[in-house]
Design brief:
Length: 242
Amino acid sequence: MNHCATTLLPAMPARRWASAAISILWLATSPATAGILFRDAVGLGLEIPDGSLAGLVHSLSITGAPSQPIASVRVGLELSAPGNDGFLGDLYVTLLHDTGYTVLLNRPGRTSANPFGYSDGGPVEIVFADDALRDVHNYRSELAGGGVGSPLAGALTGVWAPTGRTTDPLLVLDTDARPSGLGNLAGLNANGSWALFLADVSSGGSYQLDGWSLEIVLVPEPATGAATLAVGLLAWVYIRRR
């Protein structure tokens, strides 16, 4: 089902998708405002193979978007664990578009003292954004305000910075560098295939992909700045002549 609108979306919330439709939404704005492209896949129910590096790939395709380069990207992710027996510390999730590559999750909670990562098995309903202040790799500690943190009593929700850690998921640690954030997608054309890869790299506990979404902010057209400058110069000339 296609949707069209002429107003900007608010910041994308972490939520549970109820529809099984795949939608594309282009929000045209005034020339002085960057446009937002929204694309999602919902109601998927796709099992992530347990204990397999082969993983699962799900792609979204964008066509007909304006040619302005990407300014920023947010990614929504919804996972569930049948029987509530998932193991979040097993998950490795990446996003690939054109030459841009981002690591969203890489064995959350895995440290030198905890080689298995976090054992939480509840739902995941989160948004990844580079401007988020909290590192998803250490979500227990972040939610507790420091320290080790406690197991989650329910779903993992909210807006989080992607892990960005490109280390092999069998070796990754919380202390690793984070070179692969969503900023790696800036400057690219939004059109084309966006591939989400999900793997459960250790046996025991399983998750499924229920839905995911893209919120892409485009750089304003260059003409906007020129038009603004022209108006400013005309006003200055007018004032000088008075």
